[in-house]
Predict the structure.
Amino acid sequence: MIPPSTATPVFSLSHFEGSLELLLKLVHEEELDVGDLQLSHLMEQFAARYKTQLASLALEQGAEFISMASLLFYLKTQRLLPPEHQEKIEEEPFSFLQLLPQVADYCRFKNLANLLAKQEEQQSPHFFRGLLPSPPVEKESSPIVPALREVSLDDLAQAIKQVLAQAAKQPKVIREETFRVSDKIRLIAHLLTTTKRLSFESLFSPDRSKEELIVTFLALLELLKNHKAQVQEDLGRFWILPPTLG
Amino acid sequence: MQRELNFSDTCLATFEDEEQELQHPPLSHHDRKQAKLTLEAMLFSSPEPVPKEKLREILKEHWPLKRGEFSQILQDLQEDYTREDRPFQLDEIAGGLVLRTKEVYGPFVEKLLGGRRAERLSSAAMEVLAIIAYKQPITRPAIEAIRGVDSSGVVASLLERDLIHAVGKLEAPGRPSLYATTNRFLQHFGLKNATDLPDIV
């Protein structure tokens, strides 16, 4: 049982005093009969509190209240309905009540999260050497070879811009075709297994549509980022090569 | 010497220590001070908490420390820091000993280190972390069942920050990964060990 924190509102009914989570828990465990609860009082108290604490009542608390109160109302209506009706909706309340332990669980963890946050707060003024996170450990054991050697990203960008400009000028057949980066990645990777190097022009020719060019370029960048390809300059042209290992 | 069960290990260690106690006199005042300073040097140089045993073993190579003496030296050091108003304190977190700056110097160090004391965690991250910390090991679907919202993004970022790690897979359809908190988690929250969490009443 979690003692209500100062932030958790406490409600006072004829048979009960405590937080809403506790109320739900007791109803679920059948310690309290939902028929005995006067939910209208519950609403009155909430409304009164809401008026006085309008500014400080967090949105979260309001939402929590609504979800828990509506569950209580549902249970009460179930209780108030004549027995014949109860049979029909027998299946539904089951799944609702099954939610209860999860709601209780979630409330519990929200409190724990607050405790953890306080702990973090308390510890934050203390530093030790190496406290700040070191850069993420490189998972791949193979040494990293720069994918862009001799060729700068700007150069590449220039090259693609030129092709795009040219592509814009040429008349095109308008076709309904979508290009996917993943497909182009596969294509380029495959091409790189069959040949020593790919010329930039072979991948990026002006007679392709702008969309296709852009998608292909994105695919190339993705491959470069993951060190699955590299770009080099030779004889004034760009070439795309498979990655070198080591 | 053959290492058998843990039980006999401790028995053996106790016996060895007792033997030492009989053979060696307590450390001289000078030696004790040296041992203390050496300890301080080691703690100063370490980028993360060092297990007590490791420190003790290194010291023992040079000084015949009896069991109680190591703890005594630790205490001496701790008292020095308080008495002499030194800017750090000796803490036991994440399964080891570490020197940490005292609270009052926090803002300065923070500034020195680029103004971010490892970004504070978001409330969603705190929730997921709380769930994992108390229920570990636990799978992502189980986390989501509790929170009622998709948590893959938060789990991914916690993984990247090395606050949690995968410790195995659940034998169930999909074989989801099981997550637990890391040593860095303990360091970040200044906790001694995984059971040192604020209590669930």
Observations:
- Residues 1-6 of chain B have pLDDT under 50 and may be disordered.
- DSSP finds nine helices and five strands in chain B.
- Chain B touches chain A through 52 residues (CB under 8 Å).
